[in-house]
Amino acid sequence: MTIHFTKMHGLGNDFMVIDAINQAIELNPEQIRQWANRHFGIGFDQLLIVEPPKTADTLFTYRIFNADGGEVEQCGNGARCFARYVYDKGLTTEKEIPVGTASGRIVLHINDSGDVTVDMGRPMFTPTNIPFITECEATSYPLTLDDGSEWVIDAVSMGNPHAVLEVENVDTAPVSHLGPMIEHHRQFPNRVNVGFMQIVDRQHIRLRVFERGSGETLACGTGACAAVVSGIRRNRLDSPCLVDVRGGRLSVAWTGKTQDSVLMTGPAQSVFEGQITQTIA
Ligand SMILES: N[C@@H](CCC[C@H](N)C(=O)O)C(=O)O
After folding, report:
1. Which single residue of 18, 24, 265, 273 has CA 20 to 30 Å from 172?
2. Is 31 annotated as a binding residue?
């Protein structure tokens, strides 16, 4: 079976995008891991699947798989690429595109500049919603790691789970050491994405993210939202806030009210079109 796909990226967070409306595909974790492999496959951080809508208030269903083959709830950079994909491929003529995800409905808006603004929905802080195991809800939490070190994290869900640590300097932050330990920490039963945030000023941060199921990426859209939301909640940041990730810059806006959505704006880029023969049944 031959599958047509598009390789895309949002600030270097890269994706294989497949239209599963106009072609039949079969997915399994082993196949996804093989495609994601940067030496033996196509190479990507996440696989994005375009499917028909499941509800009357959405135009598409947007499914997301990490490089480790696991299906996840949300992906911010992927959402911008999804918008450009369905619009540029003529799957819709709408520039305001509501889509259904595993964590609910989000709305993608293609701006005149070509950038995409995503209404990511409301951040969630209730521990059971993240999920994060703790006795009571707080703004920040102490976390003891397997190597005995102690850190302070904020825990937030942007549809997917995030832990945010504030660091002096993202260039020297121990991302590859702490990232896997926090990702697999027993207090995060579904594992977690780990953001390392350096505050530059009240409307500007630098950020590196060790992503659940993909490792450190050049950018993480939901991670950018989680970091800004955490900073605003602790009165360290103001909206809108610029987020410099290793692959470029995003803008994130949030009123600070839990009932309001987080808005994330940034670019989305196609790299090449390809086709691959599915080798695993
Ligand atoms: N790169 C993404 C997040 C992708 C999913 C994440 N790794 C998870 O497991 O939740 C983004 O841009 O948000």
Report:
1. 265
2. no
| Mean pLDDT of all residues belonging to the chain | 97
Ligand 1 center to residue 14 CA distance, Å?
Answer: 11
Count H helices and E strands in the chain, helices first. Answer: 4, 18
- Between the alpha carbon of residue 114 and those of residues 110, 120, 155, 261, the distances in Å are 6, 18, 32, 22
Tens digit of each residue's pLDDT (9 = 90 or more) over 57-102:
999 999 999 999 999 999 999 999 999 999 999 999 999 999 999 9
Helix or strand run (H / E) with residue 80: helix 76-88
Confirm whether 2-121+268-277 and 127-260 share one CATH topology.
yes
Domain boundaries, the chain: 2-121+268-277, 127-260
Residue whose entry in the numeric block shows the structure tokens 């937030």: 156
225 as an active site residue: the answer is: no
Nearest to 116 by CA among 267, 1, 237: 267
Q: How far apart are CA 104 and CA 57, in angstroms?
A: 11
Is the ipTM value over 0.90, yes or no? yes
CATH architecture assignment, domain 127-260: Roll (3.10)
| Domain 2-121+268-277 coded CATH 3.10.310.10 | yes
**Amino acid sitting at position 36:** A
